[in-house]
Amino acid sequence: MTNRFAHTTGCIQLLLKQSENTDFDEQTHRCKTQIRILYGRSRILLLAIALGSTLFVSLLVIALFTTFFVNIDLQGIIIILFTVSLICLVASVVLFIQNISLTLKALTEKLRGQM
To answer: Mind listing the pLDDT tens digit for each residue in 66-83?
Structure first.
């Protein structure tokens, strides 16, 4: 996902340069539309990366090892961390699918200018 984020931000920068160098109103409008779509994709990817991070899974592993080695009952915390980890994973996948949808929208806009 981080590669997709880097690619998206690189495309935004190229489109910004292209929109500065064009005098055609229609071409500038297309560039700005694509920039808006790509910016939305970037924000979605950032959120997906944050939610898909291993923070909660790492805390879950620490809690499991603490329970095993120190013999402390952390069953409630383990259940909460596991649930939050799964929710974050599902949310990350949903955001990734939304990003793919926006990619297709940007491609449609780009093709509209070519046809």
So the answer is: 998 998 889 999 999 999
Can you read off the two tokens belonging to residue 3?
Answer: 């590669």
Q: How big is the CA angle at 47 (ends 110 and 100), to the nearest 5 degrees?
A: 30
d(CA 104, CA 108): 6
Distances (CA, A) of 93 to 41, 46, 55: 14, 13, 16
Residue 64 confidence (pLDDT):
92
Tokens (6 digits) for 38:
């790509």
Question: How far apart, in whole angstroms, are the C-alpha atoms of residue 105 and residue 5?
Answer: 17
Give residue 90's pLDDT: 87
Q: Alpha-carbon dihedral of residues 92, 95, 99, 100, nearest 10 degrees?
A: 80
Cα separation of 30 and 38, whole Å?
A: 12
pTM of the full predicted structure? Answer: 0.62
